Amino acid sequence: MDSAYSPEQISQYLAHVGLPQSFHPSSSPTLDINYLTTLFVHQITTFPYENLSIHYSPDHAIVLDPQALFHKMVTSNRGRGGYCMEVSILFHHVLRAVGFSPHMTGVRIRPRINNIPQGQTYSGFVHLVNIVALRDDQKYALDVGFGGDGPTFPMPLIPEVVHRNSIGTQEVRYARDFIPNQRFQDESLGAMKNWIYQYRNRPDQDWNSYYAFNDSYEFFEQDFAILSYFLSRSPDQSQTNTVLAIRFLRGFGDGDGKPKVVGKVMMSNADVKQNLTGKTNLVKVCRTEEERVEILRELFGIQLTEEEAGAIKGCRCELKGDEVLN
């Protein structure tokens, strides 16, 4: 299926994320929504969303080569994940190797103030999702790289259908509409509406929009390489100004024996938070790099090498005792 990964690598991946041999292509599993959901949940609960390569690698660079991603996240066995384009491109090639036919598309997001999406303007393309159509022609968006605010399951591309995200009372859905940035909105001339990922934390709240994309337009890995270069190096981007790590926690719920996301731990610069019940609590404020590196190991399972841990020295996001990051 035109995957960058060999059957041997896929066996290694499936073992790494904790899936049995019955999910291996050699066992001819049914490529249905149950398989897709299981694979999705194991992916996001194994590989944390993290942008540490921007801050803790000697060259402060993101590498999107599929083999480099496989070595970083699977072969090295150090608990590493990556930010959206890293984990999503890895997952794209896994999906292809096991028999699905995904394509990737770019995503525009809304800016946040105090972590809440606000305003009418959407960004340029700064994110990606994989799109998969199953044999019944139903399309699903698979977003394994939006961090703690992302969906915890493959979402069907059906407008206005409400889903409960796995943790707490949050609900999510897709709306289908134009976004305010679009000047070309004449559908008779080919203008296309976007799928808009929305959320509300309680049923009595209004829906708020996170991001928008068009599933009919395919992006290539070369497109994301250009976008990633800018996002990981521009001093004005949040990725270069914030150390981020989010790990979803896997468990079993609803009595059906199927794996589900049951919580998450999050790091943003010095602050470490945990959400196990739908309510987010601050559990620690790191003051030094030694504390942060240890928390990454203890709570996120991420083991940085000595060289990586020292690479942040002199950078804007370095923790220096009581000096507070802006």
Estimate the strand proportion.
Answer: 15-25%
- Could you list the spans in which at least 5 consecutive residues all have pLDDT below 50? none
Instruction: Give the name of the CATH architecture of the largest domain.
Output: 2-Layer Sandwich
Shape: globular
Per the CATH scheme, the topology name of the largest domain is: Arylamine N-acetyltransferase fold
Number of DSSP E strands: 15
Q: Compute the gyration radius: what is it?
A: 19 Å
Cα distance, first to last residue?
Answer: 46 Å
Give the helix/strand class: alpha+beta
**Tally of separate domains:** 2
> Strand arrangement, largest sheet?
7-6-5-2-11-10-9-8
Main β-sheet description: 8 strands, antiparallel
- Top CATH class of the largest domain: Alpha Beta
- Round the mean pLDDT to the nearest integer and report it: 95
> Element order, helices and strands?
HHEHHHEEEEEEEEEEHHEEEEHH
InterPro entries: Arylamine_N-AcTrfase, Arylamine_NAT_domain_sf, Papain-like_cys_pep_sf
Family: Belongs to the arylamine N-acetyltransferase family.
GO molecular function: acetyltransferase activity
Protein name: PaNAT1 arylamine N-acetyltransferase encoded by the PaNAT1 protein
Q: Can you give a write-up of this model?
A:
This is PaNAT1 arylamine N-acetyltransferase encoded by the PaNAT1 protein. Belongs to the arylamine N-acetyltransferase family. GO terms for molecular function: acetyltransferase activity. It holds the Pfam family Acetyltransf_2. 27% of the residues lie in helices and 25% in strands. By secondary structure, the protein is an alpha+beta fold. The chain folds into 2 domains: 7-233, Arylamine N-acetyltransferase fold (2-Layer Sandwich); 240-310, Arylsulfatase, C-terminal domain, CATH 3.30.1120. It has an 8-stranded antiparallel sheet, covered by helices on one side. A 5-stranded antiparallel sheet has the order 1-12-13-14-15. It has a two-stranded antiparallel sheet with strand order 3-4. Strand 10 (194-200) and strand 11 (208-213) form a beta hairpin. It is globular. The N and C termini lie far apart (46 Å). The model has no long low-confidence stretch (mean pLDDT 95).
